[in-house]
From TrEMBL:
Keywords: Acyltransferase, Membrane, Transferase, Transmembrane, Transmembrane helix. The lineage of its organism: Eukaryota, Metazoa, Chordata, Craniata, Vertebrata. Residues 306-318 have a biased composition (Acidic residues). GO terms for cellular component: membrane. It is found in: Membrane. It comes from Paramormyrops kingsleyae. The chain crosses the membrane at residues 12-33, 49-67, 167-191, 203-227. This is Palmitoyltransferase. PANTHER family: PALMITOYLTRANSFERASE ZDHHC16.
Amino acid sequence: MALSRGFRCCQRIFSWIPVIIITSVVLWSYYAYVFELCLFTLSNTLEKAAYLLVFHACFVMFLWTYWKSIFTPPSTPGKKFHLSYSDKERYDKEDRPDVQKHILMEVAKKLPIFTRTTSGAIRFCDRCQLLKPDRCHHCSVCETCVLKMDHHCPWVNNCVGFSNYKFFLLFLTYSMLYCVFIAATVFRYFLKFWSGELPNVQAKFHVLFLMFVALMFFLSLMFLFGYHCWLVTKNRSTLEAFSAPIFQTGPDKNGFNLGFRRNLIQVFGDERKLWFLPVFTSLGDGHFFPMRTQSESRNPLLGNEEQWDEDGGSDEESPAIQRDPSVTIHIES
């Protein structure tokens, strides 16, 4: 037991190494750009002021989005999706898979669950002892189930999911802008140092490395950013891109695809003025999502929407569910 705790403690410490590396590179880039380039190399006051103004705007937005990506806790399923004491006791005592499947099916009738396992059973997490909401997956690193899990990112030491996916996208966006601005403004002085027109040896070292590091990070971020932009337009997570969600009618990689505009709104919200700020504006509460067709509304597992509201009336998340029109589920009588 003590050995296991020691291993987990070391694992948590080492998991911060990628974040420390990124932070160190960014802090060095700040010193190299602000001091070595702008204050010690540039002679034109107007050019110096313009560079510093735009640079600090990009720097602040980068740090803000990076902070939010790291320290926003992953959203986990609410109490409604956990097995009650009696249901858990019945489930644990039962050894026959078919009967266990039937128990989970009974519990799921009160919940808005549409996705299944490959065998058609209710998705259940043995470690968290809960029924998984649609698009929810268990993260072995965070040791918890995460709503609309996309992936676990070592560079932010956090799970990217419903609670912080917008922040992660903005982090990629402002990281690219930060690199592009540095590369574009440093390029002229990079050529001058390379050709020997500027004699400052210390500044030359920083400017040369600034150029190479900015281009290297930009190229790596460009592919990752482009991939996630494609995911947003298709309303898929990284996990869903590799393994299509399974519905009552079978696997459907476009099951949550609502069209380009509505897919964007699902992630960024209705207020466009807040799209580029790292404040939470995503629609819904992460427990269920509107689907491409209403054919899934016939899923007998949903049972009765009124029963779902009544059973969860005391939960803090119920008002959010009732207010959000994008997650209304139509039940056919």
